[in-house]
Automatic annotation (TrEMBL):
Binds 1 zinc ion. One of its GO terms (biological process) is riboflavin biosynthetic process. Residues 2-126 form the CMP/dCMP-type deaminase domain. It comes from Flagellimonas eckloniae. Keywords: Hydrolase, Metal-binding, Multifunctional enzyme, NADP, Oxidoreductase, Riboflavin biosynthesis, Zinc. NADP(+) binds at residues 157, 179, 205, 209. InterPro entries: APOBEC/CMP_deaminase_Zn-bd, CMP_dCMP_dom, Cytidine_deaminase-like, DHFR-like_dom_sf, Eubact_RibD, RibDG_C, Riboflavin_Biosynth_HTPR. Its EC number is 3.5.4.26, 1.1.1.193. This is Riboflavin biosynthesis protein RibD.
């Protein structure tokens, strides 16, 4: 690994500090180097705030050094006015002499224009440092820009004998949710919720478990709740309709008298494949990542059409003998590890 790659690796480390708070903006990291020493660092502020390059430049104590400095950044600096001024302009104004960029921004308002501005100002620009690593780091943003859909993570827990939920008779005896995994795995799931922009479940999961779908066993921002409710069966007193968190309900009922205040309603055609329609709705709402925690039917809907990027599957130590079978999935095993009595396996859609 050469010195430029080491500085870019530091940019990735910084960018990770924005996980769960920058969306729909990318979680960019930036480092400024002068005479082989880091003199400034920054990462993207929560959405609406300063970008990584601005924070890095503002952290430099002696701005006179910027004329002789080198800037490293995981993603091409923006070149347009949005909620903040263009970062490419700021870099040019400070006459930073050299910039190393990992990947070009595919956003149609940037797409090379930031690089053009920098070069036009006399800045030497190098592209492609740790490109593979930075594409992985920016997987949510890149999925949204390139595939026009959020980065989709499937998550479920199954028993040792392959069931995701107990049979109906058992649910009638014990209406409370039956936990397949231990408390440590449960905490990890809440951490994941804090990292993704939205969480999605189907009608049956809501009716059976009355979940809150919030972050409770971890510090972090609650995800936007996406609820599939074809016929608006979810009762008004259920947690997902409590207005505590932004919630979007996907339905076929276009009747405002049945809609609740502070809940967004989007209409889809249930006679057509729904996974693609759901992705289109989420793209419209600028949602860059989605954690799906639904039941087998909901999960399998996305699996069958290949609309998923990661699957995070827990196997608990208990058995049901009978019940609802877990989804069927195939992919590239990325990682498998023990969480005390549970096994967590992470697959990539290859």
């Amino acid at each position: 690994m050469n010195i430029h790659e080491k500085y870019m690796l530091r940019c990735i480390e910084l960018g990770k500090k924005g996980l769960g708070i920058t969306a729909p903006n990318p979680m960019v990291g930036c480092v400024i180097v002068h005479d082989h020493k880091i003199i400034g660092e920054g990462f993207t502020s929560p959405y609406g705030g300063s970008h990584a390059e601005v924070n890095a430049i503002n952290s430099v104590k002696n701005t006179e050094l910027l004329k002789e400095a080198t800037l490293y950044v995981t993603l091409e600096p923006c070149s347009h006015f949005g909620k903040t001024p263009p970062c490419a302009n700021l870099i040019a104004e400070h006459k930073i002499s050299e910039v190393f960029i990992s990947i070009q921004d595919p956003h149609d308002k940037v797409a090379g224009k930031g690089i053009e501005k920098l070069r036009a100002s006399g800045c030497k620009v190098t592209i492609g440092v740790l490109e593979k690593e930075c594409r992985l780091h920016h997987k949510r943003f890149l999925s949204f820009q390139e595939k026009k859909r959020p980065y989709i993570i499937l998550k479920w827990a199954e028993t040792k004998d392959g069931f995701i939920a107990p049979e109906t008779k058992m649910r009638e005896k014990t209406p409370e949710p039956v936990w397949i995994t231990n408390k440590h795995s449960k905490q990890l799931v809440h951490k994941w919720r804090s990292e993704e922009q939205a969480i999605f479940v189907g009608t049956n999961t809501v009716l059976e478990d009355n979940p809150k779908l919030t972050v409770r066993n971890w510090e972090g921002k609650h995800p936007i709740r996406i609820i599939l409710d074809k016929d608006l069966k979810v009762p008004v007193d259920f947690h997902v309709l409590d207005s505590s968190v932004k919630t979007i309900v996907l339905t076929q009922i276009n009747d405002s008298s049945k809609h609740f205040q502070d809940v967004d309603y989007e209409f889809i055609d249930f006679s057509l494949p729904i996974a693609q329609q759901i992705c289109s709705v989420l793209y419209k709402h600028s949602i860059t990542s989605l954690l799906i925690e639904g039941g087998t039917k909901t999960l399998q809907t996305f699996i069958d059409v290949g609309l998923w990027d990661e699957a995070r599957i827990f196997e608990g130590a208990i058995t049901f003998e009978n019940g609802v079978s877990a989804p069927e999935i195939s992919g590239k095993l990325l990682e498998s590890k023990q969480i005390l009595t549970d096994t967590l396996s992470i697959y990539l859609n290859d």
